[in-house]
Description:
By secondary structure, chain A is of the alpha/beta class. Helix content of chain A is 37%, strand content 10%.
Amino acid sequence: MSRTRDGNEHDGLPDPALPPPTVWEERGISRRDFMKFCTAMSAALALPPAFAPKIAHALDQVKRPTLVWLEFQDCAGNTEALLRSSHPTVAELVLDVLSIDYHETIMAAAGHQAEEALAKVTKEQKGKYLVIVEGSIPMKDNGVYCCVGGRTAVDIAREVCGNAFATIAVGSCAAYGGIPAAAPNPTGAVGVKEAVPEATVINLPGCPLNPDNLTALVVHYLTFNKLPAVDSHGRPLFAYGKRIHDACERRPHFDAGQYVEEWGDHGHKKGYCLYKMGCKGPATWHNCPTQRYNMKTSWPVGAGHGCVGCSEPLFWDSMTPFYRRLPNVPGFGIESTADKIGAGLAVATAAAFAGHGVISGMRHDKGKPEDHEEA
Amino acid sequence: MTKITSKYVWEVPVRVTHWVNFLAILVLSVTGIYIGNPKSLALAPSGYVMGWVRFIHFVVAYAFTISVLARFWWMYKGNRYANWRSFVPFINADGRHKMGRMFRYYVFISKEVPYVEGHNALAGATYLLVFGLYLLSIVTGFALYAEYAPDSVMFKLFGLIFIPFSSQGVRLFHHILMWLLIGFAIHHIYSAWLMDVKERGGVMSAIFGGYKPLREKE
Lengths: 375, 218
């Protein structure tokens, strides 16, 4: 049995008219699926379709650039998101194209052996390897709140990220501190760029990140040998260049004025806009509505729950409460919204001036202009 | 005998911008409250209730901005009552003294009504704060508005606010500014009424007609 370009199995020898099988075909991926993947990647990267052959050409070359994956204050959720991207996909194999020399969750080596592998990469491949960081880096008390192999996270990050070609901060924790950085931020957690300002960092925030965006970023790197354009928060524009609200499938209901008023109501069943249920789509830049999750199966708003803004800087603090439009006003009770406080302020102002008016009315001023009869 | 003459105090640009601002703040507050906490008014998905409300909000926001900028320009071109110096009385001793006198009258310590032709010193200083609230509302408003077009010049300019501040934080601040301006409006109408009664300077009619009566003793 052998494979031909269409991936179907045939008896006998491969067709001599076809070129020899590529690295992909040897791995059991048909030419057709491979080209479909390259086209999808050029779409994810917001490149014209003409780039698909270029991507295919780049991916055909086996360069095996080295990649190390560091985990700090994390839940391994981004690793999970990546590993569980369903049955073997081209995306996973793209990551096979990389030589993953260190990944705490999936590597076979342990202890000193593993640390040696990491030290070898930073020494021998200086300026050439890629780093993926997952999890925030604690800075408080000299970074003692997260240590690996007896070294603090910030110490490891300075060495490994500082010597890398580039660092990809995956997930909101690695990008901006994420949940560990939520007030009162007991460990002084920050993202990679803040912990190691000298490193070249590209952020792929999200909780977890969308593995498709990581794949697209790696494909971009393999194709063009450089990093894509980023916004002011260090996020690639191809994935974070547009607000969720502006690409949302429920947007027509927003413009129409049709909102879910409470969970499970008529509007919720009909797929109305989740704006009033605290959806943070208008404040969140991400390609969730188009890229979706789990093999493009669904995404939070598609599934009937508002966006919680997980991929924004200052997530958690600026995005809570999840089920209200606006953050709480600091210093006031949990249930006080800005508008309730504002209305209270307006009423109090009116009451105060009403009181002032009554007192003013009863007072006789000095130096009053002459009264009517004299005028 | 007292002879009453009249003096032209509030020129046309001052009155026009005043009333444009008044209408704009009213419309912006009403539409803004709807945008922040809408009701499901559309009967069919083909409706465009929020679309129109936001459209009105943005068009009126432009009108408000132009009005505020025009008023700033008139601070340099207009008469002395419109001049920028009216809004910074605290820069000299005389102004500070006048502010203190007005403050003492307001808090019932003094019974002397300080009659003035233009803005009283305390009001002038308050308007400086109000102009500050206007500018902050305009900047936060356009920043939030421009998010729909991240490649626009407007977003490149106003979007800088999202580097230190979160989008939700800016949104909250935009709401708080509205409530502060509503609080100011209540105070402003009351004070104008109070001074109209006490000062007999015709301050209420002056904002419509521009003239204030002057009493001269013969």
